[in-house]
Amino acid sequence: MERARELLAKELGDGAKQVLRLALTALARREYGRVELERKLQRDLRASERSSDVAQVLDRLQARGLLSDERMAQSFVRTRAMRYGRLRIEHELLRRGLQPSTIAEALVPAPDELTVAQALWQRKFGQVATTMQERSRQGRYLAARGFDSSIVARILSGAVGRKA
Question: Cα(131)–Cα(8) distance, rounded to whole angstroms?
Answer without folding.
Answer: 62
